[in-house]
Amino acid sequence: MGLGAVSFLQDDAAPSIRISAAATAIFVLMYFMCCKFLTKVMIVNY
Questions:
Q1: Superkingdom of this entry's organism (predicted)?
Q2: pTM of the predicted protein model
Q3: Domain range holding 4?
Q4: What was the pLDDT predicted at 44?
Q5: Alpha-carbon span 15 to 27, nearest angstrom
Q6: Phi and psi at residue 9, to the nearest 5°
Q7: 2 φ/ψ angles, rounded to the nearest 5 degrees
Q8: Which pLDDT belongs to residue 21?
Q9: How far apart are CA 26 and CA 34, in angstroms?
Q10: Which of 1, 25, 39, 42 could be disulfide-bonded to 5 (CB atoms 3.0-4.6 Å)?
Q11: What span, in angstroms and rounded, lies between the C-alpha atoms of 25 and 3?
C-alpha cells in the first residue's frame, strides 16, 4: 500500500468521520443540557 492508497482511504472515510463527530458533539451537548436540567430540578425539589 502506497501513500496514494492511504490518502484515498482517508478521503473516502472523511464524510462519515465528520458525520460521526457531529453526532457525537450533538449527543454530548444534549447530555450536558439534560444533566443541567436534572440538577436544576433536583435543587428546586429540595
A1: Bacteria
A2: 0.51
A3: 1-46
A4: 82
A5: 18
A6: -65, -40
A7: -95, -175
A8: 87
A9: 12
A10: 1
A11: 31
Give average pLDDT by consecutive 10-residue segment, the chain, 46 residues. Answer: 54 73 92 92 79
Extract the C-alpha cell encoding 36. Answer: 443541567
The three cell numbers locating residue 46: 429540595
Residue bearing cell 440538577: 39
Beta-strand ranges (E) seen in the chain are none
DSSP code of residue 14: H
| Nearest-angstrom CA–CA distance, 12 and 44 | 50
Q: SS3 of 12, please?
A: helix
Structural domain count of the chain: 1
- 44, with CB counted inside 10 A (0-12, 13-18, 19+), is exposed
User: What end-to-end distance do the CA atoms of the chain give, in Å?
Assistant: 62
